[in-house]
Amino acid sequence: FTTVNILGTKVTSITMQQAVETAVQFIEAKHNYMIATANAEMIMRATKDQELKEILNKVNLVIPDGAGTVWASNYLGVHMPERVAGFDLVQNLLQLAPSKGWRVFFFGSAPGVAEKAKLKAQQDYPGIEIVGVRNGFFTAADDKAIVAEINAAKPDLLLVALGVPKQEKWLYKHLPELDCALSIGVGGTLDVMAG
Ligand code: UDP
């Protein structure tokens, strides 16, 4: 796929269908892949946050989440076929999870939210295996235990909802220790699912 450099962050020109196919390949490759969802706010933040910018340029896929990202790309002369919202990508992957046999872990958001999002996922995607939930309020002293909790659940897909840039930084730092095929920073996705 073509990438477009938007203010220093390379975003991939990709359709939702291609993003889903790529995510499926990432999960099947079992290589600790990471996807970031770049909206205009994240790209602006990366211009002032070197660590975030470096992470975005190292992860396996940065999708164009938001009309601003699509607009900027087209303005810079790289055709962006459509907006690939992180929320929608996640729903598409959760829908595939039961038939693929993927185990899913929800990490992040306020206490109780991930549990509610789990109930919603079980309603919407019958047979889905949400193998763990953990709220997103913790200190660095808890990192080891959180990684151990995630690994013990053996997820194939890890959704991390700690907000930008915390989710990208936490995930990128712990990716080598995580025993999970694909991790995605998902912002407010669990809140929306929890309703
Ligand atoms: N959050 C969290 N831990 C924190 C800070 C935030 O779990 O230390 C959660 C928060 O409860 C919310 C999500 O991260 O569920 C951030 O959502 P938001 O829509 O603000 O995401 P962003 O716009 O940053 O992508």
Care to give the gist of this entry?
With 195 residues, the chain is α/β, with parallel strands linked by helices. It contains nine helices and eight strands.
Top keywords for this entry?
six-stranded parallel sheet; Rossmann fold; two-stranded antiparallel sheet; alpha/beta; 8 strands; 47% helix; binds uridine-5'-diphosphate; 195 residues
Which CATH architecture would you pick?
3-Layer(aba) Sandwich
Average pLDDT: 98
| Outline | globular
Number of helices: 9
Task: Show the helix and strand layout.
Elements (H helix, E strand, L loop, with lengths): L2 E4 L2 E4 L3 H14 L3 E6 L1 H9 L1 H7 L4 E4 L2 H9 L10 H15 L2 E6 L4 H12 L4 E6 L8 H11 L3 E5 L4 H9 L7 E4 L3 H6 L1
Parallel strand pairs: 3-4, 3-8, 5-6, 5-7, 7-8
Antiparallel strand pairs: 1-2
This protein binds uridine-5'-diphosphate.
The site of uridine-5'-diphosphate (UDP) has 14 residues, from helix 9.
Describe the protein:
- The protein is of the alpha/beta class.
- The protein has a single domain (3-194), classed as Rossmann fold, CATH 3.40.50.
- It has helices at residues 16-29, 40-48, 50-56, 67-75, 86-100, 113-124, 143-153, 166-174, 189-194; strands at 3-6, 9-12, 33-38, 61-64, 103-108, 129-134, 157-161, 182-185.
- Strands 4-3-8-7-5-6 form a six-stranded parallel beta sheet, with helices on both faces. Strands 1-2 form a two-stranded antiparallel ribbon.
- α2 crosses α3 (50-56).
